């Protein structure tokens, strides 16, 4: 067990830690702003990665259907558990919304995709891309609902999905597969270059964002009940729930490992954006993002080693 843990740390988390540390140092000592980099990642690198992966992915329609079924069931079950935990612990309405955002949405893009690529190779990334696209749709609909509640607009949420270039990249990749078309070599090479730049850029952004959330969390303390409930739900209850649902759906092999790892990721950085916009306990969400990310550097190697 110890040998497997150390091997995973060396082969997977050491390569990941270098750009993360670089991003954290740039933020701490040079005051690097992540918004321009996030824009480049969201509108250029991520769509290129999604398109290239889905266009060439060796996945079956059954894998896609199982992944979609899991994502829907997982969201529903975790949401119900969050409602129960919020009422049992007597959290305020904003804290309940913050707990749900922390629990339901993981950092599967900036952190999850590079991790899966290193841990499981191209086959893992193929399966992960389907999961990520479904998560993008869910967080821009159900995520907005959880954060906004009383002033939620279904129309605005649906519109927000179609403002994301990754959705169009996925649709184009599906069209390419259906028509059995191919891109010109020069265009395909350009897309591959952009796709290859995604992982290091995303990890640099992650490191800088960790410093940003740390500063925000330290400046504004939150309730212990809200914080520990968020940590427990995201890092313990969520992975156990995913494991049970995957077993219920009879998922195995690489798909099982990839979905489980992505479900065990730390809280999504995007969650604090929704929390700030709709006053859904942003201080609680920021602190949970920081500490679930730090905890993941211990828990995820153990989980990968077991798998």
Automatic annotation (TrEMBL):
<keyword id="KW-0812">Transmembrane</keyword>
<feature type="transmembrane region" description="Helical">
    <location>
        <begin position="67"/>
        <end position="86"/>
    </location>
</feature>
<feature type="transmembrane region" description="Helical">
    <location>
        <begin position="128"/>
        <end position="148"/>
    </location>
</feature>
<feature type="transmembrane region" description="Helical">
    <location>
        <begin position="191"/>
        <end position="211"/>
    </location>
</feature>
<comment type="similarity">
    <text>Belongs to the auxin efflux carrier (TC 2.A.69) family.</text>
</comment>
<feature type="transmembrane region" description="Helical">
    <location>
        <begin position="160"/>
        <end position="179"/>
    </location>
</feature>
<dbReference type="InterPro" id="IPR038770">
    <property type="entry name" value="Na+/solute_symporter_sf"/>
</dbReference>
<feature type="transmembrane region" description="Helical">
    <location>
        <begin position="231"/>
        <end position="249"/>
    </location>
</feature>
<dbReference type="GO" id="GO:0005886">
    <property type="term" value="C:plasma membrane"/>
</dbReference>
<feature type="transmembrane region" description="Helical">
    <location>
        <begin position="6"/>
        <end position="25"/>
    </location>
</feature>
<dbReference type="GO" id="GO:0055085">
    <property type="term" value="P:transmembrane transport"/>
</dbReference>
<dbReference type="InterPro" id="IPR004776">
    <property type="entry name" value="Mem_transp_PIN-like"/>
</dbReference>
<keyword id="KW-1133">Transmembrane helix</keyword>
<feature type="transmembrane region" description="Helical">
    <location>
        <begin position="255"/>
        <end position="276"/>
    </location>
</feature>
<dbReference type="Pfam" id="PF03547">
    <property type="entry name" value="Mem_trans"/>
</dbReference>
<feature type="transmembrane region" description="Helical">
    <location>
        <begin position="288"/>
        <end position="306"/>
    </location>
</feature>
<keyword id="KW-0813">Transport</keyword>
<keyword id="KW-1003">Cell membrane</keyword>
<keyword id="KW-0472">Membrane</keyword>
<protein>
    <submittedName>
        <fullName>AEC family transporter</fullName>
    </submittedName>
</protein>
<feature type="transmembrane region" description="Helical">
    <location>
        <begin position="98"/>
        <end position="122"/>
    </location>
</feature>
